[in-house]
Amino acid sequence: MSLIKKSIAEFIGTFWLVFGGCGAAVLACGIPGTGIGYLGVALAFGLTVLTMAFAIGHISGCHLNPAVTLGLVAGGRFSIKDAPAYIVAQVLGGILAAGALWYIAAPDLTHASVGAFATNGWSDTLVNGVNAFGGHATGMGAALVAEIVLTAAFLFVIMGATDAKAPAGFAPIAIGLGLTLIHLISIPVTNTSVNPARSTAVAVFVGGVAIQQLWLFWVAPIVGGILGAITYRCVACTGGCGCCAKKD
User: Which residue, 42, 47, 85, 110, is most buried by CB atoms nearer than 10 A?
Assistant: First the structure.
């Protein structure tokens, strides 16, 4: 399969992730009485990955996420030379999806605050006892730790579920449910990123604080993804990979 076709698959897959996940948050979450809430948004993100993993996993590997791509590079599962094309395709696919969602929802972003239009961020203070996402965590430190830890866990799951020794055919389910769990944990903290492309896609339409805080949602997921992949590689290593070879 050519790199161009793989990149197109990543573009389409990331479009679906942002349109489905962020679309659920923007269009269906806040409806009084009938909104889908945290659980619905978490499931939406998980289902986008699960469905696309079955659809394009055999084409591109279904990364849909720069942190996944770079984590898989660190884990020895993906070529560094193909990573830039994947990451560009992911970001562009996400931005196109956010543009379509912006057109449909027509949000008023004139005085947008943290979390507007499904953006990621953190609150420095609580207002009426809650942060911008209805939780109680505040500060950049909490956001940084949450995003690093959860992206590391995500890559650990991805590496394990796609291992040649893992049960065949179940990886999309494990990965999709893993992303669902991650959202259930961290929507009240950062609105859940673990994906720089997803964060960038909506932030470019909001500007302001969403752009100011965007750096964390590149740095933390990438650091976490690399740590998670390397950790799995060492835990699962049987000596042949060299990462846990005994030294004299």
Answer: 42
